[in-house]
Amino acid sequence: MPGPDRTVRTTPTRKRDPLKNNPPRPPNAWILFRSDEFKKILEEMKRDPTQKRMPQADISKLIAARWKTISDDERQEYEKLSERKKVEHMELYPGYRFQP
Known about the structure:
InterPro entries: HMG_box_dom, HMG_box_dom_sf, SRY-related_HMG-box_TF-like. One of its GO terms (molecular function) is DNA-binding transcription activator activity, RNA polymerase II-specific. It is a single chain. By secondary structure, the chain is mainly α. The chain has a domain at 29-92. The chain is built from three helices and no strands. Helix 1 (29-47) crosses helix 2 (56-69) and helix 1 (29-47) crosses helix 3. The chain is flat. The N and C termini lie far apart (49 Å).
């Protein structure tokens, strides 16, 4: 005698439409700082070929530690830059609204 029919119901997952060209979000102060620091770290690694390449997770931890120790003035510069980027973004993409 056959057993009961079993069906597994799954909730549909939303897939991003690869053809939909959503504009990127404007970078915040942390993202701008991380980008600058990441470039510096890559340059340091290129200058010293004997230095072993760091995993991305370790680089992120190093940059996060640096972010916590920067001065208020330096942090304020990144905040100002972030605001400028936000204004540029609003000019490029009027009516933009982040939709995850």
